[in-house]
């Protein structure tokens, strides 16, 4: 049978948006939920965490997988009786007001499994696994004694796929790593350093922008640079020019640090939909339909 929940005046709320969602959006939603919870008389305190289960926090509970699209709230009640009496109401409010998220109120329990009820399908074809899991979820959703039915695979996320042209790129002296780092500088930015604002750690990012300080609009025209400048440009003609004065040191440095547009070293960019996480069991792809009893 199932273990009974602990008689405790605290619970935790799991909040999960689709993989790839900005952590800023998660933080914003958690703040909104916190304001709602603190407006209720039976709730004394709320602690928020973004990215995973709070550190140095160990009770009889399941621990979430780290993800920037995940957040958690630890909620203290004035009494355990008030907790039990209001759980369903709060769960319904959060489900109705945050339809894009998976929201789940959980009490502490000796059973560490995330879901008491699961059915698993194994096989090589993700499409068939999704179809079978979908059929199982439909059965679970129709049952009046089951709630919070979901799959353990995340929805597919859009991914930019750059078709790297190895022949052309290597002739210019650019590797796959050079292209990926250059694209990172044109999009999210390269983590360069950190500084502390009192006790808060802040990351400094190095980003490529246009002459007006704006983000580059077209990735095809973004500048691709080499992490280690290619020595191939230092040919006999350039050395002779340095000796005769027709080349200056600035000319050599400019040539070494020369950038090329992304379109010159790739065969195009396309948007594809991929599974952010593929779960396997005994070496095979595995997908689970999961739910909770009422």
From TrEMBL:
Record's GO cellular component terms: plasma membrane
Name recorded for this polypeptide: AcrB/AcrD/AcrF family protein
GO MF annotation, one: xenobiotic transmembrane transporter activity
Transmembrane segments: none
Database matches in SUPFAM superfamilies: Multidrug efflux transporter AcrB pore domain, PN1, PN2, PC1 and PC2 subdomains (SSF82693)
